[in-house]
């Protein structure tokens, strides 16, 4: 371990954390490989505990003393009775700011975290233009974050000068610090489950899938329920239910010292975080050889999400099954977890184009066609249909069933009638019309890209073999 880790490791151990330093070493990789991370110091078997973190050492709005000092009700309740600081990330950001300003329990940990980020949140307009057409820019949420800073955080700090002395505001409570702490949460937080009621500190479960972000996943992402998850999503609520009685039952977005030292790489996960009653444990999920890096992967996210949340992308050798169809066979590097997100409005436009071009002249009425399609898509959304479709390899499952169902609903009047009668969207039966409309929608998707970066995946199969779609 290099000396730069000593202050953090000493703080961690002094506060009840335990690190199996015979087996795991903290080290520094080149920035392009993640900077700080951890390696195996000797061969480590599967199911070996690498380190333990007491729950009391995780930092969240539940463990920080600030919410109670502020007044629990005023903290939690929504305006006009309170500040709604249990919703979104503003409360946790405020706790982090306050810890730093007051040299609190977590100050040494926070001081060890990066304060400079390469994520698109900090890019200039010119660089962001390179991402045009990707989902990254629309998901950045910079304006929302800045509105929360102005409308939620500033009124809170100005209402309690005893807790937030004015002379500290220019140092610790600025918009810049708000973004830095927000980026720390986005790139490093976990969504920590409450302590199990049948409380044992033995690691529970054998799988831990993450979901968003260092992911820990959320069941709705159709991951198996993780033993611990990091938050990917921005983005989100710290707790779902604001009912005070249920509060202790909710997962909570938390900073987890030491667990957030591990880097990630597609398909390389060899350690996962497991919850116990009083502590969290990072446990190996496969044998690791001496010298190998220890990875806690964030759910094998596509590059767009890696870039947005963490500021890096995976650029690995792609299996031949994914590069089939490449025009020159050169695109053998990328992220095997990349996907294409196809918005339903592009499907709608492609369907309308087809309906128009195949209609006999009296029916070739653009506004009537658009109005009818709008009626159908409104029905689709009312029935709980998605407005974004995710296309992922392998090709056998390339076309999501709900995408096929929507195209049939839009393009086939019989299917539309049947769907209304049965109150159920059409079956996902692929036919020529479905494939043609989908291909046109994908071409429209491809045309949205304007940047000069070329990161591609090859959508194979069906009738549009060789169609290339930039995904990043
Ligand atoms: C949970 S932290 C891991 C510890 C981090 N490397 C550090 O120095 O504190 C996640 C961050 O590490 C970096 N990182 C993780 N995996 C990486 C990878 N495969 N390539 C490049 N950077 C990576 C990214 O900056 C990401 O936001």
TrEMBL record:
Q: Which InterPro entries match?
A: SET_dom, SET_dom_sf, SETD3_SETD6_MTase
- Where are the compositionally biased (Acidic residues) regions? 236-250
What positions does the domain SET occupy? 22-299
Spans annotated as Disordered: 193-250
Q: Which domain of life is it from?
A: Eukaryota
Q: Pfam families this protein is in?
A: SET (PF00856)
Protein name, please?
SET domain-containing protein
Tell me which species this is from. Hohenbuehelia grisea
């Amino acid at each position: 371990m290099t000396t730069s880790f000593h202050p953090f490791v000493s703080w961690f151990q002094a506060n009840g954390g335990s690190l199996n330093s015979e087996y795991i070493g903290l080290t520094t990789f080149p920035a392009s490989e993640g900077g700080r991370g951890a390696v195996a110091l000797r061969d480590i078997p599967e199911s070996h505990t690498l380190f333990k973190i007491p729950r009391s050492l995780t930092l969240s709005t539940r463990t920080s003393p600030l919410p109670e000092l502020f007044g629990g009700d005023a903290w939690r309740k929504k305006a006009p009775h309170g500040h709604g600081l249990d919703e979104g990330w503003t409360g946790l950001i405020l706790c982090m700011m306050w810890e730093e300003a007051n040299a609190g329990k977590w100050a040494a940990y926070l001081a060890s975290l990066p304060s400079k980020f390469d994520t698109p949140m900090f890019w200039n307009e010119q660089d962001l233009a390179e991402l045009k057409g990707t989902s990254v820019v629309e998901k950045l949420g910079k304006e929302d974050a800045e509105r929360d800073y102005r409308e939620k955080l500033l009124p809170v700090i100005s209402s309690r000068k005893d807790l937030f002395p004015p002379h500290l505001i220019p140092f610790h409570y600025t918009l810049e610090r708000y973004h830095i702490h927000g980026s720390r949460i986005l790139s490093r937080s976990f969504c920590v489950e409450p302590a199990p009621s049948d409380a044992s500190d033995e690691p529970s479960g054998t799988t831990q899938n993450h979901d968003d972000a260092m992911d820990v996943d959320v069941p709705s992402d159709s991951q198996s329920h993780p033993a611990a998850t990091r938050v990917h999503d921005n983005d989100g609520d710290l707790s779902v239910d604001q009912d005070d009685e249920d509060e202790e039952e909710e997962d909570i977005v938390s900073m987890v010292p030491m667990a957030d030292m591990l880097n990630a790489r597609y398909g390389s996960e060899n350690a996962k975080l497991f919850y116990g009653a009083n502590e969290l444990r990072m446990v190996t999920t496969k044998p690791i050889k001496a010298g190998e890096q220890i990875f806690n992967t964030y759910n094998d996210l596509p590059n767009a999400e890696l870039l947005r949340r963490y500021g890096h992308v995976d650029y690995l050798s792609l299996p031949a099954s994914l590069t089939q169809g490449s025009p020159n066979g050169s695109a053998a590097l990328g992220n095997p977890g990349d996907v294409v997100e196809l918005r339903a409005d592009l499907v709608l436009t492609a369907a309308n184009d087809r309906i128009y071009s195949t209609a006999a002249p009296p029916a070739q009425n653009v506004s009537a066609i658009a109005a009818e399609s709008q009626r159908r898509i409104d029905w689709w959304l009312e029935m709980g249909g998605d407005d974004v479709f995710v296309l992922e390899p392998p090709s056998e499952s390339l076309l999501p069933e709900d995408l096929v169902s929507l195209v049939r609903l839009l393009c086939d009047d019989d299917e539309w009638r049947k769907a209304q009668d049965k109150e159920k969207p059409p079956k996902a039966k692929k036919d020529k019309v479905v494939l043609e409309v989908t291909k046109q929608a994908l071409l429209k998707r491809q045309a949205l890209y304007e940047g000069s970066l070329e990161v591609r995946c090859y959508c194979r199969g069906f009738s549009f073999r060789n169609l290339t779609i930039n995904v990043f």
